[in-house]
Design goal:
The protein is an alpha/beta fold. Helix content is 35%, strand content 21%. The protein has 20 helices and 20 strands. α6 links the parallel β6 and β7. The longest helix is centred in the N-terminal third of the chain and has 13 residues. The structure holds S-adenosyl-L-homocysteine.
Amino acid sequence: MLKQNTEYKTGKVWLAGAGPGDEGLLTLKTAELMETADVIVYDALISPEILSRIPTEKETIYVGKHSGNHPVPQEEINQILVQEAKKGKSVLRLKGGDPFVFGRGGEELELLLKEEIPFEVVPGITSSVAVPAYAGIPVTHRDYTSSFHVITGHARKDGKLSIDFDSLVKLNGTLVFLMSVASMEKILQGLLDAGMDPETPAAVLERGTTAKQRRVTATVRTLKEKSDQAGIGTPAIIVVGKVCALAEELHWAEDRILGGRRFLLTRPRQNISSLAGRLRSLGAQVIEMPAIRTEPVSPNPILEKALERFQEREGEKWLVFTSPVGVSVFFEQLVEMKMDLRNLFGGAGRIKAAAIGSATAAALAGHGIFADLVPQTYNAGNLGKELAEKAAAGSHILIARAEQGSEELLPPLTGAGFTVEDIPLYRTVCEVNPLLKDQIREMLENGEIDGVTFTSGSTVRGFTQAMGEMDLSNVSAVCIGEQTAREAEKYGMRIEIAREASMDAMVEKLAELYSNV
Ligand code: SAH
């Protein structure tokens, strides 16, 4: 039993596994801790899609590599955990796979125990089982093997492996070697020298469970050569045993409609998930860029004054919304400034509502307002044009939308002689975890992100601002509409445009461009 230390408000450490990469393989417990912990201490094997789930305001400490690419010594990591817990924080120590499978988790707990800091262990899905599974290799199978063994291929300081090959070969089970790419030749030779049949099936599996997973299957005799030809790098595992031959038939991950595809989604954090979920269900790896957060302009005296004037106006009046977020921020702000809906709608004249698209109209309907106008094609220019045609002469128009909203909306309205007030309700703010940003930049530069989705001009600006100076000409921008595309084009991206401005059409476009079938 751990004693609670009374000298300081003791924090607590959760030593948790984040699984091998696919975000869906996070346990519910770890996912919840990522939301609730005060600080997250994580290392290099955490995948970008998992990193992107960390709330932007959360404190994080990266202990993968020091600048200059030196690994952070284990003792230093142990100290960090102790220090943070001693500040009274709940600390999530996040590790790849399972924390006790070659994760040095045990070592990290020893110091906590000594310092009397309470801890919990949250097992994770280990790469040693999940990576073969995603390659179509069951680690056991009644017809071929009755055991599997997980072995480290990490060499000692003198370059030698401490593996008892004779015993391993006798076991006749499936052998899974972690940290084994560098020592592949020695491992395979060790098995052959101990009498293993050179024709035994073997596989090397790189970046398993991610969109970019690769599999090379061969035999113990030929694996090294084939792996070199394919240029297999880390992280990867080697699997040896008859079950490897099953991959030829049981492979599945890359066969999904969007299997092997990786997308970066830039959308306001608040409503990103429906698109992400649907792309994931089609097999894509989705990195949600948490950069683009909407921040209400609050307090908002400009809105307050404008609404007061609006109430007094005679004749036809229009409230115009250009995004679901705009709708929710608008109603939040009414509450904040204690403006009673009866006053707003009960003033002189009648208020009509226009929404740029179906999602915005649905958000309005959620507040009991059914839009009088939704343009045929969902974009700001069309909204302006159709409203100019529909609104009575002399109408008063109040547009409630993002700062720096699309310029195309205004000219048709002012041109028609309406009084137009364009009120900024919220702004988009960019904050990306620096490691995630580096990973995203690297993936973009290496062409490892198939498409980046944009659902408004402000997401384009947020993205480019967050990424900093870089060549974006290789980026394939999948845009919700013409105007968003024009914005992406300004930064040199290649553009694709959805059939209409809806999440359905975005999914359709991505499937059309990137489907495997
Ligand atoms: N605790 C981790 C293993 C840490 S050792 C676990 O349970 O999975 C690091 C090794 O794990 C890597 O060298 C590689 O062999 C393996 N590994 C981790 N993630 C992997 C992945 N996505 N694909 C292939 N190998 C992986």
